[in-house]
Amino acid sequence: MINQIGTIQTLEVLRKIETGYVLDGDILLHHNETDTELEAEQSVDVFLYQDKKGQTVATTQLPSIQINIYGWAEVVEVLPHLGVFVDIGTSKEILLSKDDLPLFESVWPTKGDKLYVSLGKDRKGRLLAIPATEGVFERELFEPAHENLLNETISGRIYRTDREGSACITEEGYRGFIHHTERKEEPRLGELVEGRVIEVKHDGTLNVSLRPLKQHSMGGDADEILLRLEENNGIIPFSDKSDPEDIRGTFNISKAAFKRALGKLMKEGKIEQRDGKTYLISK
């Protein structure tokens, strides 16, 4: 444990030099990494990391995130060939490898998103940010939700995303799952999303929808259908009899939502249906 990078240590000042201080183990504490004047034989709490030369150095900026200690870190840079760099609260920004990110870059976190991480090391001994697993969230942050949250609006960070859906966690520690049918677009890892609780499960977790209520979503779905009609010379090969999977694959909404939107447009006299197709009515 002594002088292990990625941890906070209490070390003694051996001597002062022009560029800073030499601590136990000949570790350099640069003037830029402390705002306190130190004296020889004084003990100081420091966080240890490696500089660009691979040497172990110290800072008095003490992060909450360390080896095997988790916390929220903000994404500060995205490099597609490497991964993303996160701010753990020191001058040293830490890489979270692309190997620990989703396969598709479209759902990678962007600058300003936050990830729940600890620190680890790569094969060369360099510090890496390590994302928390499902077990870590359950052990460290999980709080069972109450029944009175049903239909309430909540905000949460996405901490897992895949084809089936996305998992999020709120500031209160409630864990939510967003099924792929309850979102128009797949949210990014680390993104803060706002959704509506559609089920409080027996284990205290939530099912969440990122879709608006039916009466609110109808107008948006209708506008999208109109846009499709305008882009396709006033005709689309869909009607209220179309296959639900074909509708979802094209419009990313359920057949029920599609039928509601068509009904709205027909009531307004903007469209008509013939032979399994929908036509825009020219005014």
Structure overview:
By secondary structure, this protein is an alpha+beta fold. The protein folds into 4 domains: 8-59, OB fold (Dihydrolipoamide Acetyltransferase, E2P) (Beta Barrel); 71-132, Nucleic acid-binding proteins (OB fold (Dihydrolipoamide Acetyltransferase, E2P)), CATH 2.40.50; 142-209, Beta Barrel (OB fold (Dihydrolipoamide Acetyltransferase, E2P)); 214-280, Arc Repressor Mutant, subunit A. It is built from 4 helices and 18 strands. The strands form 4 sheets. A 5-stranded mixed β-barrel has the order 1-2-3-5-4. The chain has a 5-stranded antiparallel β-sheet with strand order 8-7-6-9-10, with no helix packed on it. It has a 5-stranded mixed beta barrel with strand order 11-12-13-15-14. Strand 1 (8-17) and strand 2 form a beta hairpin. Helix 2 crosses helix 4. The longest helix has 18 residues, at 214-231. The relative contact order is 0.08.
Give the topology:
Layout: E1 8-17, E2 20-23, E3 27-30, E4 43-50, E5 56-59, E6 71-79, E7 83-87, E8 94-97, E9 114-121, E10 127-131, H1 134-140, E11 153-161, E12 165-170, E13 175-179, E14 192-200, E15 206-209, H2 214-231, E16 235-236, H3 244-251, H4 255-267, E17 271-274, E18 277-280
Parallel strand pairs: 3-5, 13-15
Antiparallel strand pairs: 1-2, 1-4, 2-3, 4-5, 6-7, 6-9, 7-8, 9-10, 11-12, 11-14, 12-13, 14-15, 16-18, 17-18
Helix pairs in contact: 2-4
